[in-house]
Amino acid sequence: MATEVHRNGSLSQVSLQGFVLVGFRGSAETQALLFAVFLFLYLVTVLGNLTMIVVITLDVRLHSPMYFFLKNLSFVDLCLSSVIIPNALANIFSSSETISFAGCATQFFFFSLLACTEAVLLAVMAYDRFMAICSPLRYPVTMCPMTCARLVLGTFCVGCLNSIVQTSLTFQLPFCSSHYIDYFFCDVPPLLQLACTNTAINELVMFALCGFIIVCAVFVVITSYGYITVTILRMRSGSGQHKVFSTCGSHMTAVSLFYGTGFAVYGQPGGVASMEQGKVVSIIYTLIIPMFNPLIYSLRNKDVKDALRRLGQRHSLLKESG
Predict the structure, then answer these.
(1) Chain mean position to CA 118
(2) Is 8 helix (H, G, I), strand (E, B) or coil?
(3) What's the mean pLDDT in 126-152?
(4) Which of 14, 226, 236, 317 is most exposed by smallest CB count within 10 Å?
(5) 179: number of Cβ within 10 Å
(6) What is the distance between the alpha carbons of residues 125 and 231, in angstroms, rounded to a whole number?
(7) At what angle do helices 200-233 and 145-170 cross, to 10 degrees?
(8) What is the mean pLDDT of residues 275-279?
(9) What is the pLDDT of residue 131?
């Protein structure tokens, strides 16, 4: 429902069939350039994450907790981009640029679920590295397949809980008759600007819930890597230190990018003030980060590069035999 403002100042509820996603303004040439860039980045994202999922699934040498979590990270990244980017691409050349009320709520629900899941999953991956490096003897028992599956399920449960709270609070608001969303997808900040009521409670809940999740995740990451750093410095083998730093460095790069952009929009008061700045930041965590994660973990990981090489050789042999 939306709220219509009459000339006498009274308010009444009107049926809200949908929203208009304004997206990125500009000339036809600018829109065409944006479409080409977004499409290219999205295709790279899909290809990169699908490759990681396939390689980790097919190569038995990568059937370990670290790569199990990495495969789930690729799955979440793939879904996160796919919830947002195809619709954004369709709207660039669409004359209406509309999205139904139910479609907007659905997009928002899954985006919120996946973004929160990734935030928690990155913390779980840091804990996994902590156990592997600081407690190698206990690691096989502590991080058994059942425990890993429960941890991943837990990340989705946290994401689902966050999504239910955010979606229910946001879409029960009375929206104004002006239904233009100054964004390229349905998200909390632009939707709150359309509300014809005080949104202080919604902003407080968003700040408290998202801030709590991010702070807890960052605490786990910092604590884990604090112990990891101490353990690495105690190592006598220079090659061992380099290997551990390389693996952990990839994860820290991904963590810094995701948590930094997420906190800029959701984890601080006033983070919803600038929609133009929000659009740019949103591109980073809905497209750039999901595209870079497979590259970060594959280019800096010898095991993944070897697995890719073996998969390529296997494909060549099958092609020759066929």
Answers:
(1) 5
(2) coil
(3) 93
(4) 236
(5) 18
(6) 17
(7) 160
(8) 72
(9) 93
Token pair of 280, please? 């740019």
Residues of the chain above pLDDT 70, percent:
83
What tokens were used for 261?
């952009």
**Cβ(196)–Cβ(11) under 8 Å?**
yes
SS3 call for 4: strand
Query: Helix, strand, coil shares of the chain as percentages rounded to 5?
Result: 75, 5, 20
Q: Which residues pair with 20 in a beta bridge?
A: 98, 180
Tokens of 104: 């907007």
pLDDT attached to residue 2: 46
Closest CA to 70 of 7, 162, 132: 132
CA distance 130 to 143: 11
In the three-class reduction of DSSP (H, G, I as helix; E, B as strand; rest coil), residue 96 is classed as coil
Q: What ranges in 59-187 are assigned the alpha helix state H?
A: 65-92, 101-134, 139-142, 145-170
183: helix, strand or coil: coil
Cα–Cα dist 144/146, whole Å: 6
Count the alpha carbons within 13 Å of 62 in the hemisphere toward its beta carbon: 25
Within 10 A of 80 (CB to CB), how many other CB atoms are there? 24
